[in-house]
Amino acid sequence: MDDDSSSSSQSCERNETVRSRWNPKPEQIVILESIFNSGMVNPRKDETVRIRKMLEQFGAVGDANVFYWFQNRRSRSRRRQRQIQASLSAVSNSNEEQSARSSDGGFITVFINGVAAQVPRGPLDMKAMFGPEDLVLYHSSGVPLPVNEYGFVVQSLQHGESYFLVSSHQPQVAGGRVSNKNMN
Length: 184
Description:
The structure is a single chain. This protein is an alpha+beta fold. The chain has helices at 2-17, 26-37, 45-55, 63-101, 126-130, and strands at 107-112, 115-120, 124-125, 135-139, 152-153, 162-167, 172-174, 177-179. The strands form three sheets. It has a four-stranded mixed sheet. The N and C termini lie far apart (52 Å). 14% of the residues are buried. It is found in: Nucleus. This is Protein WUSCHEL. One of its GO terms (biological process) is DNA-templated transcription.
């Protein structure tokens, strides 16, 4: 019986020292995402402290939380970039095979996130091309390409032009103000 009471008291003592996981508030995420998207993807120690102080007005946060958030976000970003490039390579390879078989040459070459891709002329089916995720295709001028209710890009892509494929859930930074209309 002594063993049970001593193990339960040790269990209580352990629970008191366990820290709870940091769960950033939406305002903190918007700030962190806007900093990351502005190009600061690996802040130095003094920048981490400055960011933490900014975030503290919305809730408790430590320097380590900020450091690990950026580390995890870089990892997610690299993984996402690899997925997009793999998707584009698969589409490009598939389109090259189809183009070689077809005599009408119904494909054009565009650059998506810096990768050359063969895409069909005419309306582009975003879901068939890039999967079920909510993605937005931007022309290199910064203008998003409109998509109809069926998931097709309304305008045809232009041969040789550059486009950028991004998640529609990323906060948009416009005029120095963060707009997070797509995040729930």
